[in-house]
Amino acid sequence: MPSHRLPRLPGPTAPPARRPEAPADLEKFNAAPADDARRALLTCCRSPRWAHRVADHRPYPDLDSLLAAADEAAYDLTPGDLTAALARESLAPLPAGAHSAAHTALSAAHTAYQSRFGHMFVICLDDVAPDEAADRVLDAIRSRLTNDPDDERPLAAEELRRLARGRLTRLICDPSGLAMAESVR
């Protein structure tokens, strides 16, 4: 019987891809007591239901799995959960050195938005340069103020999901983000 050998391949062959190690703070998050993990998660999305759901599905093997679970939990928020989470959001701080005219314009726009929709304006600015943030927020508020409340609700939910995803990534990976050790104690 002939031996079963692999054919000789020309040129170098690549070793199997190694799976990157989970960030150390993901391991801390996975090992944290449930109440501590939920408290940390509430800094990412202020929905208790979302935080419970994400915490209850631990451990996560990697950041992508955690983010997928967070997205799924965000998509499943009830209207009441979304209302509660939006009510707990706060205004994004303006970059240092923003002119008082920008503060005035943004304050007026936020007030108009809250009056029309009954909740805080939310927008994810993770992909926006800090010096462009104020303009982007003002443009987005003005644009979204023209929406019907039924059309605005899913947009706000999507921005909240994106915000939670960015905050969660910083919580787990970014040393300048939230310190997991401090938030889960």
Automatic annotation (TrEMBL):
Catalysed conversion reaction: 5-hydroxy-2-oxo-4-ureido-2,5-dihydro-1H-imidazole-5-carboxylate + H(+) = (S)-allantoin + CO2
Gene3D superfamilies with a match to the protein in the record: Oxo-4-hydroxy-4-carboxy-5-ureidoimidazoline decarboxylase
A single GO BP: urate catabolic process
InterPro entries named in the record: OHCU_decarboxylase, OHCU_decarboxylase_sf
Region (Disordered): 1-24
Pathway info: Purine metabolism; urate degradation; (S)-allantoin from urate: step 3/3
Known EC number: 4.1.1.97
Transmembrane regions listed in the UniProt entry: none
UniProt xrefs under Pfam families: OHCU_decarbox (PF09349)
Domain spans labelled Oxo-4-hydroxy-4-carboxy-5-ureidoimidazoline decarboxylase: 30-87, 98-168
GO MF annotations, alphabetized: 2-oxo-4-hydroxy-4-carboxy-5-ureidoimidazoline decarboxylase activity
NCBIfam families with a match to the protein in the record: PRK13798.1
Protein name per Swiss-Prot or TrEMBL: 2-oxo-4-hydroxy-4-carboxy-5-ureidoimidazoline decarboxylase
